[in-house]
Structure formats: C-alpha cells, structure tokens
C-alpha cells in the first residue's frame, strides 16, 4: 500500500476508489472512523458468512457503533460497542449470539485490537413474516 502526502492528510488509490485520510473531516475520513469501520465491517462480514452457512434467513442487518475515546491519552479508542439489528425469518437469539461469538474469533480486525480496545457486541432480532 502506497500512501501519498497531500495538503491536509494522506491519500491512497485502492483501485476501486481513492481514499483521503485527514484529522479534519472536511478533507477526508478521520483515522478513528476508518479503525471503527474496519472493525465493524470485518465483524459483520464474518458474521454474515456464518449465518449464510447456517442457512439463517436474514433480510437485513444493520450495525450501530458506539465509540468511547480517551481525551487524556491522545484521544485513543478505548471501547467500541457494536449493536447488531438482524431482520429475518425463524431467528433464534441464542443461535445468533453463538454465531456472533464464532464471528468474533474469526474476525482479523477484532483479533488485532482485542488486547487494547474493548469490543462489546450486542444484538436484537426482528422476526419478519411472509
């Protein structure tokens, strides 16, 4: 990966788009946003693959991230709460939580930060009718 300096941060061309990174959100994505997005995106992607293998019928999944930062320590991320809302058919909360635990163990981004950032995951299911 090659990052290039620009006036207000850095830029990388990833083949499917240019990514601007800056501490000023008027000039690009802020680094903490990318960190949280990487963790949430990886976790959701692995979780979705597991649900698909389990033949769990989901129509939609949204993830809300709640981030706690410490201003006394360079505003470092201390905690990320990921709340999943799963909409689907014949959902079993116990099975969903078990699959979420498996996803956590297989998400490279969560595993990379688990000793320095507390990741808390919760979920709620919404049963849809046909």
TrEMBL record:
Gene3D superfamilies: 3.30.300.20. InterPro entries: KH_dom-like_a/b, OsmC/Ohr_fam, OsmC/Ohrsf. It holds the Pfam family OsmC. PANTHER family: PROTEIN YHFA. This is Osmotically inducible protein C. It comes from Lentibacillus kapialis. The lineage of its organism: Bacteria, Bacillati, Bacillota, Bacilli, Bacillales.
């Amino acid at each position: 990966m090659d990052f290039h300096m620009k006036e207000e941060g850095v830029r990388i061309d990833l083949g499917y788009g240019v990514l601007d990174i800056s501490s000023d959100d008027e000039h690009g994505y802020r680094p903490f946003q990318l960190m949280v997005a990487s963790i949430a995106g990886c976790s959701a992607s692995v979780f979705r693959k597991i649900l698909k293998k389990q033949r769990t019928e989901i129509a939609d999944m949204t993830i809300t991230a709640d981030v706690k930062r410490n201003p006394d320590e360079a505003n470092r991320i201390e905690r990320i709460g990921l709340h999943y809302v799963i909409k689907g058919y014949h959902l079993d909360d116990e099975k969903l939580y078990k699959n979420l635990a498996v996803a956590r163990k297989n998400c490279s981004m969560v595993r990379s930060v688990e000793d320095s950032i507390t990741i808390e995951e919760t979920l709620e299911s919404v049963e849809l009718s046909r």
